[in-house]
């Protein structure tokens, strides 16, 4: 035996009768090795190392037997060494019970904490927090015990240990962190909480500042309530502690090197935060309440409690840029947008670990528990390509849902925060009526995020003094709650009384602070502290240049033959001993031939060349989706895999000297959060072509809120530009209702005000020029692309290399066969894959009087281009047919036929050829599909 272990024996713990104690200690060691003394860790590790099985699998019986064997062998030495008598079995059991009690408080102490300002619920007993549950009695209270891993004295009386635990874990902070498996993180939290017993260490100036911030939070609400009676403002009253919380978060973040903070929150308390934190001018807010907007070129606008804002704030570490994201009423949908924005800012700063950029999300309790995008956003937090170094989540927990719901109806969990445990985020519940406790958990949460670069949650349990909005009467459905709220003093009043009782402030000080704040509002002064003006930010983006463009501005999207050759040579180079899968090797060989002009160009080659050209010209490319590295249809192969060892290689990363200029990520199985993330990224980086690709276009409906609330309407509501591109595989090939349609009709229905572009390219060259046009244009608009599936390998859907060096994007593509214009009696117009079905069948039938015209861009609709064909070139044609694969009530027919008609002569008649209207996007039976497809082609050619 080692000397240290012999010493441990002599100190009374190691004796044969103490086997129960040792078993308990071993259980703790299995759960968390750091909870037991070093000597015991060494001892238990020694037992494990002697076994052939995996570590921490030694049965308890073996521990007991080995312990008794060693104790008997060394018992005489222990007794004669003068170290005192060995611990009795009863004493050992008591010691083990104390350690179990300590662990119980760490695990479940939050359930006994005083977290609810209204004290609405009857406290349920927590059995394992009762000493009696562990067979500890009153006679044990004055006995001294080892405190184990508690961050306090090594030995204390039991009653003092219990007092310590109650003060640490049972006051107004409830800490949940024992679910974390990383021992370093868990022990760090324990130390931070236990060394100060869960209390903030604030000096007199800090406490007075806290009162001032509470007074400001209450002051703006009362001011608006009296000045704009009955108008919606979604008051923060009852949750005023949010303002000192955010103030502390900003100042402490800045002191730790954070330079940018991106914040997202819903409407409750938003006006308060804009005025008291971001420094929005009260005069501007009053104008919004009074409806005095400048309507010229204002778009549709949005309500005042959805608007974003940004400012620069002085902190101990210098200026911090704070940006509040614009947010619709879909509450949590802003979450991925904020973290995407944060990621873009990190990329600009080359801030790999989130040292300088911090995302902050402010949630409501019911929304946090109820909306799935919260879970999806948490799942992004540590994923490659979406990592932001952790988000600080703040829940303004009003204890009541959207309007009148009871928590029993709004969730199935004890707390609204359970979803955060999926990423092992620490959760800090705090009573919103204790501002100092709120500041303590804010400091703890930020420091945890900065130390471990992971998400953390602050759950501020408070209440809502008014109804859902200021015209609502909540007492009609929540009489008990609002009976208490009516009598309950505000947190500002409670804290002022506390400081007065402690002699920190005088009796008149609270009124003076309130009066000074109101006077500032009357004078329309900026009331947020530390606001800076004229700050130079080297990482800011000037979006002004992207508002000046025009849809019809010409742009050269060609690449010279020499550049194409050089790029292809770069992309063909592989690392030494990098062996490709035979199929992939064949694709790479084909691309080598395509680059030399010896083989017709396919879609994968054209797409890769488009990205390579942009990278060479100084742009960046970011492509994410559920199968984007390879491509769902095995066409892209942007990521190559070594057949020998599974290592990967991305040739496009070698086009520039900065590998991060090209990013391709196979994302998690999410549409809503990932698309929201990419939108947030795109709104903050116009120099990066940001692309989200659906695995199948049909799945985009899982992200419809992002499309409706941000992508298609963000510019007209908020003036926010975005060059986000969406690839949505679309085409009817008999694969059933969920693998056919990207819901083209939904996008066309949302088209107005030149808000988005909707394209359906039918050739690799078109795809190439479309990609380059999107980035080389002088403005930024979202691009929605119906991308191909079967066309990726269609023998007719190819392009020549010169189409990349001498071509351009065509909104409309005219007839390509040698058909005499004077003979044309009918023109079929179409988009997408159906063109090749029509072309093949027309050729088979040798029809010479029908021209087929492709509309490659459905919005903005190219009326001039199509009119030139229908009115002039084919002016003698009497019949115009729109042919589509989609059912009649879907696709482009209903949304675009007015465009078709405007392009036609009065003497021409418009017909429809396609599937009948259907509630389902496509049939599920291949035979039925093929018959429908045959019939719609037949109809188009014979009408």
Automatic annotation (TrEMBL):
Keywords: Oxidoreductase, Thiamine pyrophosphate. Pfam families: 2-oxogl_dehyd_N, E1_dh, OxoGdeHyase_C, Transket_pyr. It comes from Aquisalimonas asiatica. Residues 71-90 are annotated as: Disordered. E1 component of the 2-oxoglutarate dehydrogenase (OGDH) complex which catalyzes the decarboxylation of 2-oxoglutarate, the first step in the conversion of 2-oxoglutarate to succinyl-CoA and CO(2). Its EC number is 1.2.4.2. Residues 74-90 have a biased composition (Low complexity). This is 2-oxoglutarate dehydrogenase E1 component. Coiled coil: none annotated. One of its GO terms (cellular component) is cytosol. Its cofactor is thiamine diphosphate. GO terms for biological process: tricarboxylic acid cycle. Residues 601-794 form the Transketolase-like pyrimidine-binding domain. One of its GO terms (molecular function) is oxoglutarate dehydrogenase (succinyl-transferring) activity. Belongs to the alpha-ketoglutarate dehydrogenase family.
């Amino acid at each position: 035996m080692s000397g240290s272990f012999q010493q441990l024996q002599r100190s009374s713990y190691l004796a044969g009768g103490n086997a129960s104690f040792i078993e308990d200690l071993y259980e703790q060691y299995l759960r968390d090795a750091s909870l037991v003394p070093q000597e015991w860790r060494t001892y238990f590790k020694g037992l494990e190392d002697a076994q052939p099985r995996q570590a921490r699998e030694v049965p308890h019986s073996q521990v007991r037997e080995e312990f008794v064997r060693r104790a008997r062998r060394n018992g005489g030495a222990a007794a004669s060494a003068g170290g005192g008598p060995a611990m009795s079995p009863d004493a050992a059991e008591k010691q083990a019970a104390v350690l179990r009690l300590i662990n119980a408080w760490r695990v479940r102490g939050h359930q006994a904490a005083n977290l609810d300002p209204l004290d609405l619920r009857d406290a349920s007993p927590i059995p394992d927090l009762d000493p009696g549950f562990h067979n500890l009695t009153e006679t044990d209270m004055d006995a001294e015990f080892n405190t184990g891993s508690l961050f306090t004295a090594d030995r204390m009386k039991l009653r003092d240990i219990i007092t310590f635990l109650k003060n640490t874990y049972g006051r107004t902070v409830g800490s949940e962190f024992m679910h974390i498996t990383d021992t370093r993180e868990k022990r760090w939290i324990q130390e931070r909480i236990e060394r100060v017993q869960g209390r903030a260490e604030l000096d007199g100036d800090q406490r007075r500042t806290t009162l001032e911030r509470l007074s400001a939070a209450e002051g703006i609400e009362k001011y608006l309530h009296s000045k704009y009676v009955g108008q919606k403002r979604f008051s923060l009253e009852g949750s005023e502690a949010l303002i000192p919380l955010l103030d502390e978060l900003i100042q402490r973040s800045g002191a730790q090197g954070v330079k940018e903070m991106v914040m997202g929150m819903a409407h409750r308390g938003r006006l308060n935060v804009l005025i008291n934190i971001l420094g929005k001018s009260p005069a501007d807010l009053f104008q919004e309440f009074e409806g005095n907007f400048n309507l010229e070129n204002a778009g549709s606008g949005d309500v005042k409690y959805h608007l974003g804002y940004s400012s620069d704030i002085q902190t101990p570490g210098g200026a911090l840029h704070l940006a509040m994201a614009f947010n619709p009423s879909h509450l949590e949908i802003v979450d991925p947008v904020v973290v995407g924005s944060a990621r873009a800012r990190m990329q600009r700063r080359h801030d790999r670990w989130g040292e300088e950029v911090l995302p902050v999300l402010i949630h409501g309790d019911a929304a946090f528990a109820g909306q799935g995008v919260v879970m999806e956003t948490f799942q992004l937090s540590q994923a490659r390509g979406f990592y932001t170094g952790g988000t600080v989540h703040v829940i303004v927990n009003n204890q009541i849902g959207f309007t009148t719901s009871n928590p029993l109806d709004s969730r199935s969990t004890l707390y609204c925060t359970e979803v955060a445990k999926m990423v092992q985020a620490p959760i800090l519940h705090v009573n919103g009526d204790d501002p100092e406790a709120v500041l303590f958990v804010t400091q703890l949460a930020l420091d945890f995020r900065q130390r471990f670069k992971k998400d953390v949650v602050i759950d501020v349990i408070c209440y809502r003094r008014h109804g859902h909005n200021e015209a609502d009467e909540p007492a009609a459905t929540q009489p008990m709650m609002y009976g208490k709220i009516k009598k309950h003093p505000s947190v500002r009043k409670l804290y002022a009384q506390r400081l007065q009782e402690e002699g920190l402030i005088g009796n008149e000080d609270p009124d003076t602070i309130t009066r000074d704040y109101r006077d500032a509002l009357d004078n329309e002064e900026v009331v947020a502290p530390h606001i800076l003006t004229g700050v130079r930010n080297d990482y800011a983006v000037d979006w002004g240049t992207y508002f000046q463009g025009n849809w019809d501005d010409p742009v050269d999207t060609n690449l010279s033959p020499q550049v194409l050759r050089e790029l292809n040579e770069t992309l063909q180079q592989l690392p030494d001993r990098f062996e490709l899968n035979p199929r992939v090797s064949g694709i790479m060989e084909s691309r080598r031939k395509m680059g030399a002009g010896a083989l017709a160009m396919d879609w994968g080659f054209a797409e890769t060349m488009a990205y390579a050209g942009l990278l060479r010209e100084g742009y960046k490319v970011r492509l994410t989706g559920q199968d984007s590295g390879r491509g769902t249809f095995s066409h892209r192969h942007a990521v190559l895999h070594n057949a020998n060892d599974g290592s990967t290689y991305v040739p496009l990363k070698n086009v520039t000297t900065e590998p991060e200029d090209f990013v391709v990520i196979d994302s998690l199985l999410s549409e809503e959060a990932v698309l929201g993330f990419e939108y947030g990224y795109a709104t903050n980086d116009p120099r990066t072509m940001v692309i989200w690709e659906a695995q199948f276009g049909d799945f985009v409906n899982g992200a419809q809120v992002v499309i409706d609330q941000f992508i298609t309407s963000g510019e007209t509501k908020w003036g926010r530009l975005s060059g986000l591109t969406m690839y949505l595989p679309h085409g009817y090939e008999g694969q059933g209702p969920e693998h056919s349609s990207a819901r083209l009709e939904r996008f066309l229905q949302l088209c107005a005000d030149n808000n988005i572009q909707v394209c359906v390219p039918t050739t690799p060259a078109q795809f190439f020029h479309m990609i380059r046009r999107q980035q080389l244009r002088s403005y930024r608009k979202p691009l929605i692309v119906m991308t191909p599936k079967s066309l990726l390998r269609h023998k007719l859907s190819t392009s020549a290399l010169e189409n990349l060096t001498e071509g351009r994007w065509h909104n409309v593509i005219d007839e390509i066969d040698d058909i005499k214009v004077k003979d044309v009696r009918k023109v079929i117009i179409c988009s997408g894959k159906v063109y090749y079905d029509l072309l093949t069948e027309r050729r088979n039938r040798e029809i010479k009087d029908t021209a087929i015209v492709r509309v490659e861009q459905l919005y903005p609709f190219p009326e001039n281009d199509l009119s030139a064909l229908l009115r002039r070139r084919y002016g003698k044609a009497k019949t115009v047919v729109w042919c589509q694969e989609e059912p009649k009530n879907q696709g482009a027919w209903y949304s675009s036929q007015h465009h078709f008609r405007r392009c036609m002569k009065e003497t021409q008649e418009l017909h429809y050829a396609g599937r009948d209207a259907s509630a389902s996007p496509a049939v599920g039976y291949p035979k039925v599909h093929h018959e429908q497809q045959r019939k719609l082609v037949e109809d188009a050619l014979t009408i």
